[in-house]
Design goal:
GO molecular function: alkanesulfonate monooxygenase activity
Strand content: 15-25%
Pfam families: Bac_luciferase (PF00296)
Largest sheet: 10 strands, parallel
CATH topology: TIM Barrel
InterPro entries: F420_OxRdatse_Rv1855c_pred (IPR019952), Luciferase-like_dom (IPR011251), Luciferase-like_sf (IPR036661), SsuD_RutA_monooxygenase (IPR050172)
Number of strands: 12
Distance between the termini: 15 Å
Domain Luciferase-like: 14-237
Structural class: alpha/beta
GO biological process, one term: alkanesulfonate catabolic process
Oligomer: single chain
Shape: globular
Helix content: 40-55%
Order of helices and strands: EHEHEEHEHHEEEHEHEHHEHEH
CATH class: Alpha Beta
Length: 299
């Protein structure tokens, strides 16, 4: 069964507005709510810095909801040590009663790293960090004791206690890079998420993921595949939400009539999407989410 979720950006919004939004999203019948991990807004501008911190808001999401899965799409391994993340998300799992999902990526928003004095190495190094980091997470979240020796992270008989509520907390990899990201997902992830691509591009990347799975001897059906899309019933809505990025994300947005939006969602499902997440940016248009919920007959 396809899960429909909502990915809530943490930029330019108050914690009170986020909490009330989560309540309404859950009441509308969506099955997933996630947060992102950024210190600045998504525009990449050095003065766009109004953004709430992700781990704290992930914990708040756990406490403010009672039914939905609560995800992170995705924490950056470049400024989040995976062992510390494992401890944090385990606590969040306890706060939520076993509804937490862990997401990890290599990081991309260099403006944040530069502003905070955090090293932003070349792509290969960041991908190496991701590959080591997800192994650290798998060990600490899925096993009682973990030892790991890498170039970036080292664990020696490390324990993560108390254990998560879930016997095996799902670990997601975010991103569309076909040489490393999808290969890492094939080897280590329980879920893979990519934002703002068309159904055809989603299907093609999912095929690349399946090829990597074949190489490492894994059944691709073991990896849950999710697409993040925009929701803009009109062109004006698209422009107001995404501004100068509107054309870049257009192919990954749901727009038009109810029937056209449902048809587009069907194309993603036919392309292999197990989960479709609506990616919101403040100010959130919750009425648009309600319209979609009614069309999908979620509530």
């Amino acid at each position: 069964m396809t899960v429909f979720g909502v990915h809530t950006g943490l930029q330019h919004i108050s914690s009170d507005d986020l909490r009330s939004s989560w309540h309404r999203i859950e009441a509308l019948g969506y099955g997933w709510i996630s947060i992102w991990d950024h210190f600045y807004g998504a525009t990449g501008k050095p003065d766009d810095a109004e953004c709430l911190e992700a781990v704290a808001m992930h914990a708040a999401l756990a406490c403010e909801t009672s039914r939905v899965r609560i995800g992170s799409l995705v924490y950056s391994v470049g400024y989040r040590h995976p062992a510390v993340l494992a401890k944090a998300v385990t606590t969040i799992d306890h706060l939520s009663g076993g509804r937490a999902d862990m997401g990890i990526g290599s990081g991309w928003a260099q403006v944040e790293y530069n502003a905070y004095g955090i090293p932003f190495p070349e792509t290969k190094v960041r991908m190496d960090q991701l590959e080591e980091g997800i192994q650290v997470l798998r060990g600490l979240l899925h096993n009682d004791v973990t030892s790991f020796e890498g170039n970036h992270f080292t664990l020696r008989e490390a324990r993560n206690e108390p254990r998560p509520v879930q016997a095996k907390m799902p670990i997601w990899v975010g991103g569309g890079g076909e040489k490393r990201t999808l290969k890492i997902a094939a080897k280590y992830a329980d879920g893979w998420n990519v934002p703002f691509v068309s159904p055809d591009e989603f299907a093609r990347k999912r095929g690349v993921l399946a090829d990597h799975c074949a190489t490492v001897g894994r059944d691709p059906s073991e990896i849950r595949c999710a697409i993040n899309v925009g929701l803009a019933w009109t062109e004006d809505s698209l422009q107001s939400q995404f501004g100068h990025l509107a054309n870049a994300v257009r192919n990954g947005c749901l727009t038009g009539t109810d029937d056209q939006v449902l048809d587009r969602i069907g194309q993603y499902i036919d392309a292999g999407a197990d989960q479709v997440n609506i990616a919101l940016r403040a100010p959130f248009d919750l009425d648009a989410l309600e319209r979609l919920s009614v069309a999908l007959k979620l509530a």
